[in-house]
Design a protein that fits this description.
Blueprint lengths: L5 H6 L4 H20 L2 E11 L5 E15 L4 E4 L3
């Protein structure tokens, strides 16, 4: 996340609750538009860095495939 957003998030902490869902939504839309499947996504939001400074960021894990809802089956990504 660009550090230009940090002052905004520091002033409006309630926005931190929506960041994980926003990050997952962006990844889900990108995978859907490029591969036509819906992936499994796990998002871990972090608010502070290793020096305990305010450093909001996300760790995002994405499955190596996704569900094709039209065919009702799992599809592996091709690299």
């Amino acid at each position: 996340m660009p550090n230009v957003f940090w002052p905004l998030l520091r002033r409006h902490r309630e926005l931190l609750h929506d960041i994980a869902a926003l990050g997952a939504s962006v990844v889900r839309r990108w995978v859907k538009s490029n591969y036509g499947v819906t992936p499994v996504i796990l998002v871990i939001p972090h608010t502070f860095g290793r020096r305990l400074n305010f450093h909001p960021h996300l760790h995002i894990l994405v499955s190596a495939g996704g569900v094709n809802k039209r065919e009702n089956r799992w599809v592996h990504f091709r690299y």
